[in-house]
Amino acid sequence: MNKKQSKKSSVASRRTFLKAAGLGAVAVGFAPNVLRADGPVIVGEGAHKYAWDSNWAKLPEDKKFGNCHSASVTADGRVFIHNAGPDSVCVFDPDGKFIESWGKEYASGAHGMQLRKEGTEEFLYLATTGQRSIVKTDLKGKVIWKQDGPPKEHEFYAKSVKNKDGKDVLPGYSPTNIALMPGEGDIYVGDGYGSSFVHQYTKDGKFVRAFGGGKTKEIGKLNSPHGIFIDNRSGEPLVLVADRSNSRLHYFKPDGTPLNVVTDELRSPCHFDTFGTDVLIPDLAGRVTLFDKENKLICHLGDNPDKKKWRNNRVAMAEWKDGEFICPHGCTYDKAGNIYIAEWLSNPHGRVTKLTKQA
Fold it and tell me: Which phi and psi angles does 314 have, rounded to 5°?
């Protein structure tokens, strides 16, 4: 058999398998999504394949998600989901069993959530767009401190206004996420829905400096620093910003000195997490992206072929499909390299998908 005959035979065999499995042409032509006859949808390629599970989070009947924004995993494997429902922080075990919920006071402003171990204890840092503040809590929701923004006399702002709690806050200030230096290092806040500056604080919430802003594509400037993360993959901690409205990633030194930008294979980057040398990027425009250590594309996960669904918060649940993201917004890895994606959806509620790493 020559190479041409062998190729034809291979294609015919695949078509025969798909037909017998009842999958028809669904699995053809939109790699890297592959449907298996004996199990879930598989997304990814090569060493980066994951089983899709949109039913992982098992909420009690009397609870439901609002728009889902963020996800974090504790050292013991509990998964925290931050959403805009009345149970704003929902906690699950690794198998998706519901443990508890809290945080109704954050429902109107649920957005960014990061977790950090400090000493022997873990803490959550919440960026609330509705309350326009940064809140540090323990894992039960007890408030450690709250920060309503940089000093009101700062040159970026002329006067204060009232937030939803009736407190004075800065006009145009609406933080979207937080980056945390390892240990008990500085805190970086992306003012993504406000000034587009990044505000730097000490671990105790004291203002250090601001950088970025401008709302242009100029190097060193930012336009909606929606997600922010400390990238240690090079051996040096760098501030990595999801410069969403510029459709790029922008690196800075810890003192705010601008470095390089990454523009390839990005649509609307929201945030980050890392596993080994890989970086995970939920892209609000209908897919999740994996980059290697050099920020070169490994693969896209769940790339939605329907552009009308990209960033469309109102896509009806009847149109949600396994293997296709719509509005991926937050992400986290667990210790095994499994991925949890929180989606900004509201018709009728948000979606959390677990992508289980395949051997």
Answer: -105, 10
Q: Residue 193: which domain range?
A: 31-357
Q: Name the CA radius of gyration of the chain, rounded.
A: 21
Q: Is residue 261 a part of any domain in this protein?
A: yes
The per-type count for the chain, helices as H runs and strands as E runs, is 1, 28
Query: CA-to-CA distance for 191 and 195, rounded, in angstroms?
Result: 6
Q: Is residue 14 part of a domain?
A: no
CATH number at residue 208: 2.120.10.30
Q: Which amino acid is at 120?
A: T
Residue 2 lies in a domain: no
Provide the whole-model pTM: 0.87
Q: Please report how many Cα atoms fall inside a 13 Å half-sphere around the Cα of residue 229, on the Cβ side.
A: 23
- Cα–Cα dist 136/255, whole Å: 23
Mean pLDDT, the chain, rounded, equals 88
How far apart CA 301 and CA 343 sit, in angstroms, is 14
| pLDDT bucket at 205, cuts 50 / 70 / 90 | confident
**Looking at the 3D structure of the chain, how many domains does it have?**
1
Q: Is 64 helix (H, G, I), strand (E, B) or coil?
A: coil
Cβ(77)–Cβ(334) below 8 Å:
yes
